[in-house]
Amino acid sequence: MRNTAKLTTAVLAAGALTLGLTACGSGKDSASSDTSGPLVVAASPTPHAEILNFVKDKLAKKAGLDLEVKEFTDYITPNTATEDGSVGANYFQNQPYLDDFNAKRGTHIVPVVTVHLEPLGLYSHKVKKADALKSGATVAVPNDAVNEARALKLLAANGLITLKDGAGNEATPRDITKNPRDLKFKEVEAAQTPRSLDDVDAAVVNGNYAISAGLKPAKDALVLESPKNNPYGNFLAVKKGDENDPRVKKLAKLLTSPEVKKFIEDKYQGSVIPSF
Question: Which residues form a coiled coil (predicted)?
Answer without folding.
Answer: none
